[in-house]
Amino acid sequence: MAGELDAxxxxxxxxxxxxxxVTGSGQGIGRATAKRLGEEGGTIVVADRxxxxxTRTVAELREHGVEAMKVLADVGSLAxxxxxxxxxxxxxxxxxxxxxxxxxxxxxxxxxxxxxxxVILELERTLYPTxxxxxxxxPIMMEQGFGSIVNLGSQSPRGLHRxxxxxxxxxxxxxxxxxxxxxxxxxxxxxxxxxxxxxxxxRITSRQQIGPGEMVEIDDTEEVQTWRxxxxxxIRNQQAIKxxxxxxxxxxxxxxxxxxxxxxxxGQVINCSGGQS
Length: 277
Known about the structure:
CATH class: Alpha Beta
Strand content: 15-25%
Radius of gyration: 18 Å
CATH topology: Rossmann fold
Order of helices and strands: EHEHEHEHHEHEEEHHE
Distance between the termini: 39 Å
Number of helices: 8
CATH architecture: 3-Layer(aba) Sandwich
Oligomer: single chain
Helix content: 40-55%
């Protein structure tokens, strides 16, 4: 039975019969979200560029009675995002929910240490996939007259040592606000869940992997370790709840915004960060 996927769902079926795309759902918050939306009755499209992790998520969903489909897609380009949406529409005829989860910082260091290439790679990973997926899905949702988009933000715009990543996530905040105003009249809601530090115990794909078989080098010098400790202390000092979040806690917030329980909520950034401010 699907009830074993996420016990936090407490039996709610808020996403019954809804077609839900979750990008980057092979691991971490994306995987937890796919499980939570499936637990709540959704038909889940597991979109990931890594076959191993996507296959794992789909298999787990199907084992628990959830209708699930795997789409291998690189949404770092508009063509990749459009291909994903087209494949889902061909299979199910509509898209009810899009969760833009793809992203994640690569380097942690003061801004003056970044190279031009590093800045570009951070933005390509963090900002562009969400922009392209929104651009690709909006015509579909406009035509059908409904849809819920949930983006993934971050607390990094208030933090240390990840400025290009923080700029990308700040761009997602702006994207959320503007799209909610532009497309609310079409029945489309756009919101963001903004996680704090979240433990990812099921990682298959390293942060260093920027493409199939393509890795970048990350220094692990004593200086870099000091920067990471400073960043961790900065996060903890701002938190009311002094621990890392769990992917399932982020998924619970995402499921709420995706569902009709949030039918009058749009353009909002919901912090799921242990009280980080």
